[in-house]
Amino acid sequence: MFSTLITFLHRAIMQGIPLLYGSTGEILTEKSGNLNLGIPGIMYIGGMSGVIGAFIYENSLASPEDANGFLAVFIPLICCMLGSLLAGLIYCFLTVTLRANQNVTGLALTTFGTGFGNFFGGSLIKITGADVPSVALTTTSNFFRTTLPGAESTGWFGKLFLSYGFLAYAAIIIAILCSYFLNRTRGGLHLRAVGESPATADAAGINVERSKYLATCIGSVIAGLGGLYYVMDYACGVWSNDGFGDRGWLAIALVIFAIWRPNLGILGSIVFGGLYIVYLYVPGALRTQELYKMIPYLVTIIVLVLVSVRKKKENQGPASLGLSYFREER
Fold first, then answer.
1. 155: which DSSP letter?
2. Beta strand spans in the chain (E)
């Protein structure tokens, strides 16, 4: 029983890491007043960009033994960040500069990102001539999945706390840093001011457009890392079209569950990860697994209702969330 519980928690954490990346990036974005529903697509773009970088690097090697650990990690990582940054810039240009509708832009970006991932994923599959519809990047993945010392020799403690790749620990560190930035720094105060009332922030001398650009682009890069983690660590370097499922939407739901607090997102990601796979531990649940996968969304709805009923300002989203700022109307 204890062994099953440790295994369940371990898998829940691994399931939750992509959600933590996505929710942290979206929280940072939403604090600026931008509602980026393109997070699922950005995670696809980030994951596929990293896959392309890893694919090019692996094919440049004479043999897997020639792989350099630094390059095997750096190339996919920088490709992922650049791809995600470009997606964030596209979103900002449309919604901040051109003042397009944020909901429509985000949904269009999700559709584009999914198509981007599936198109290039299918192209790589054709290049490799694989018998199965997937691309395997085992050599690169092994470097991403390197665990901490003692992961296998310290029993349940090692499995629960030490047996993850560096991107898993980076997700927690990034969430903590984002929480500190938003609540303990002048820059975080300015960003929250922009999200609450951009006109007031503008009158106080804060550059609203720059704040929105920076928050959204950095948030997009963070979310894109979630896609890279899923492919390189969780999926062991195997890319399959539509393999992400609804994890991008779960990340957005996690934002509400965490009441726009990145530090609460850490716990929430583990809860969501556990709820997402709980059907595997319930006898006879495989045939109704989709019903079990609805549980995180139901929990989010309950939290949203409770937060709305209590009406505590600190548990609400930014007042100007989803609204374009027109300086001429100030």
1. H
2. 135-136, 238-239
CB 223 within 8 A of CB 39: yes
Query: In this predicted model, what pLDDT tens digit does every residue of 150-200 receive, in sequence order?
Result: 888 898 999 999 999 999 999 999 999 999 999 999 999 999 999 999 999
| DSSP letter (8 states) at residue 135 | E
Q: Residue 242: how many CA atoms within 13 Å on its side-chain side?
A: 1
What is the crossing angle of helices 2-30 and 208-229, to 10°? 160
Work out the end-to-end distance of the chain between its first and last CA atoms, rounded to an integer number of angstroms: 62
Name the residue among 65, 60, 235 with its Cα closest to residue 141. Answer: 235
Tell me the one-letter amino acid at 294: M
Q: How many helices (H) and strands (E) does the chain have?
A: 14, 2
Give pLDDT tens digits for 84-108.
999 999 999 999 999 999 999 999 9
Burial class (CB in 10 A: 0-12, 13-18, 19+), 153: exposed
Residue 223 near residue 27, CB atoms below 8 Å: no
CA angle, corner 105, sides to 15 and 43, nearest 5? 20
Extract the runs of DSSP E, i.e. beta strands, from 88-176.
135-136
Give Cα separations from 199 to 30, 45, 69, 94, 327 (angstroms).
17, 33, 49, 20, 7
Instruction: Name which of 217, 199, 216 is nearest 208 in CA terms.
Output: 199
* Residues β-bridged to residue 136: 238
CA 57 to chain centre: 24
CA distance 321 to 205: 20
- The 3-state DSSP class for residue 238 equals strand
Phi first, then psi: what are they for 254, rounded to 5°? -65, -30
Asked if pLDDT for residue 289 goes beyond 80, the answer is no
